[in-house]
């Protein structure tokens, strides 16, 4: 499984538009990417304009297909006008374990 932590940042004056763009990206990803196991955005408790997308993919091919999919390219481009700074992306090869 591939896990992605995508840290993204909205310009304060465009937070509402940015949130709508994140919702749209989440919906189109969940609807169109069969290799997507999880695609959830979470807000920071310290910075109201900072978010993280926690993603889980069946494999690297599924993630690569997502990154090249028209809905991802368009959704990401639509967010560009509202971004405070570039995203910080961390990609992991992971295996679930039990506690």
Automatic annotation (TrEMBL):
<keyword id="KW-0503">Monooxygenase</keyword>
<dbReference type="InterPro" id="IPR050744">
    <property type="entry name" value="AI-2_Isomerase_LsrG"/>
</dbReference>
<keyword id="KW-0560">Oxidoreductase</keyword>
<dbReference type="InterPro" id="IPR007138">
    <property type="entry name" value="ABM_dom"/>
</dbReference>
<dbReference type="Pfam" id="PF03992">
    <property type="entry name" value="ABM"/>
</dbReference>
<protein>
    <submittedName>
        <fullName>Quinol monooxygenase</fullName>
        <ecNumber>1.-.-.-</ecNumber>
    </submittedName>
</protein>
<dbReference type="InterPro" id="IPR011008">
    <property type="entry name" value="Dimeric_a/b-barrel"/>
</dbReference>
<feature type="domain" description="ABM">
    <location>
        <begin position="2"/>
        <end position="92"/>
    </location>
</feature>
<dbReference type="GO" id="GO:0004497">
    <property type="term" value="F:monooxygenase activity"/>
</dbReference>
């Amino acid at each position: 499984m591939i896990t992605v932590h995508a840290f993204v940042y909205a310009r304060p004056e465009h937070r509402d538009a940015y949130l709508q763009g994140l919702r749209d990206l989440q919906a189109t990803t969940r609807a169109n990417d069969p290799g997507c196991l999880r695609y959830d955005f979470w807000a920071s408790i310290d910075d109201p304009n900072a978010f993280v997308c926690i993603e889980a993919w069946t494999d690297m091919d599924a993630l690569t297909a997502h990154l090249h999919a028209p809905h991802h390219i368009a959704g990401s481009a639509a967010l560009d006008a509202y971004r405070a700074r570039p995203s910080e992306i961390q990609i992991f090869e992971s295996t679930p374990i039990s506690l």
